[in-house]
Amino acid sequence: MVSQEMYELGTKKSSIRTIFEYGQKRAVEVGAENIFDFSLGNPNVPAPDFIQAAAIDILQHSDPMEVHGYTIAPGKPQVREILAADLKKRFGMEITGKNLFLTAGAAASVTITFKALAEAGDEFVTIAPFFPEYRVFVEACGGKLVVVPAKTDDFQIDFAALEAALTPRTKAIIINSPNNPSGAVYSEATIRQLAELLRAKERAFGHPIFIIADEPYREIVYDGLTVPCIPLLYENTIVCYSYSKSFSLPGERIGYIVVPDTVVDFARVYGAIAGAARVLTHVNAPSLWQLVIARCAGKTADLSTYAHNAAFLYEGLTAAGFSCMRPQGAFYLFPQALEEDDAAFCARARDYDLLLVPGADFGCPGYFRAAYCVRTAMIERALPRFQKLAESYGKVHE
Ligand code: PLP
After folding, report:
1. Total structural domains in the chain?
2. Residue 113 beta carbon below 6 angstroms from any ligand 1 atom
3. Chain centroid to CA 35: how far?
4. Which ligand 1 atom is at minimum distance from the Cα of 242?
5. Do residues 37 and 165 both lie within one domain?
6. Which of 9, 207, 281, 329 sees the fewest Cβ atoms within 10 Å?
7. Which of 103, 112, 124, 131 to mutate to test the pocket of ligand 1 (most atoms within 8 A of CB)?
8. Pocket of ligand 1 contains residue 23 by CB under 6 Å
9. Which residues of 1-28 are buried (b: 16+ CB within 10 A; e: fewer)?
10. Rounded to 5 degrees, what angle do the CA atoms 130, 149, 15 make?
């Protein structure tokens, strides 16, 4: 009567959602202040005042047809020109409005891109740990997700493992840096090495291999690090961006895809992006929010809380005996679990009302994710719980 596959996708909750819902129920029993929910990547920094001011001004003073009407599928031309000029100014990308396609956030950006590129039997490579929805999105577009094991010493790329995963069926590699969940930022050396490897494989296989750069955390980086602009280092790069994190607007659904001129057969790729958006019934990115992001181009929310939380949680957990890479960006910590079975570890953490996500969900068993896009005061109150949890595994607090 209904598609079994869709039924299962709609009713089988992700473990992140299950943990979050457990937390909501437990909060009723013990009080919200006694639950330490590190499960969801929902930004806790409020959307900036200038966003609200822009939205209100546009709603009050612009032509309602302009604010609420359909736009052409790629988005309002003047908005795309403004965003392209900003990307050119900030990163040196040689693009104009014709290289942008506005979307309803990063989930739409990557899914439209997968759908645009996927031909029967195509493989899309991702590097563990990875955003779990990639599997759902790639498979929905008829592709096969190929996972390269994690390089757990620094969460950069294990090039020997990546090379072994590339086949004549490889259509693209998904790069998510700053990374959810590891917090790693791929260095320019890593991207250059990746570009060299992919060019060699393009020559060997006789067809292009795309990088799909999923970059919703592009502006959330610490210690003066910069995120390399991948299209400047590898010609066949398609960038998928979202304002969910940089403007704290995840509920508004706004982002874009950049297809630079350097992409092989630009017109066909951009045309396929438009076709994919059409069959996925994307119609157009929300008109009001197209106007708002154009007004606010080049700005971000105040993201300094994340740097502060990252350092605070990292110091607290390492002092309690956890091993962890110091996060370089995004808003997740990805420490080693204190037993091999990360699900059992997260279950024991629940006894201390600490809600954590097992690393296996991200293709990296033996680790766990703690999202620190939470109030700093909650981290402060949670640290003694982490200490107790570590002590239950025989760790001694420094
Ligand atoms: N890609 C990654 C790596 C993410 O972490 C997320 C959300 O957390 C998304 C895509 C989807 O973001 P959006 O809200 O823009 O659809």
Report:
1. 2
2. no
3. 25
4. 15
5. no
6. 281
7. 131
8. no
9. eeeeeeeeeeeeeebbeebbeebeebee
10. 40
Atom of ligand 1 nearest to the CA of 107: 16
Cross-strand bridge partners of residue 255 = 103, 242
Q: Whose CA is nearest to atom 5 of ligand 1?
A: 180
The verdict on 106 and 175 lying in the same domain is yes
In a domain, 94, yes or no: yes
Residue 356: CATH number of its domain: 3.90.1150.10
pTM equals 0.97
- Residue 39 near residue 368, CB atoms below 8 Å: no
Length of the chain: 398
Q: Whose CA is nearest to atom 7 of ligand 1?
A: 41
Q: Is the CB of 216 under 6 A from ligand 1?
A: yes
* 79 and 125 belong to one structural domain: yes
Is the CB of residue 74 less than 8 Å from the CB of residue 102?
A: yes
Take atom 2 of ligand 1 and give the residue whose Cα is closest.
131
Give pLDDT tens digits along the chain (398 positions).
999 999 999 998 888 888 988 999 999 999 999 999 999 999 999 999 999 999 999 999 999 999 999 999 999 999 999 999 999 999 999 999 999 999 999 999 999 999 999 999 999 999 999 999 999 999 999 999 999 999 999 999 999 999 999 999 999 999 999 999 999 999 999 999 999 999 999 999 999 999 999 999 999 999 999 999 999 999 999 999 999 999 999 999 999 999 999 999 999 999 999 999 999 999 999 999 999 999 999 999 999 999 999 999 999 999 999 999 999 999 999 999 999 999 999 999 999 999 999 999 999 999 999 999 999 999 999 999 999 999 999 987 77
Pair of tokens at residue 324:
């962890």
CB-based contact 362:133 (threshold 8 Å): no
Q: How far is the CA of 99 from the centre of ligand 1 (A)?
A: 21
- The number of the ligand 1 atom at minimal distance from the alpha carbon of 105 is 15
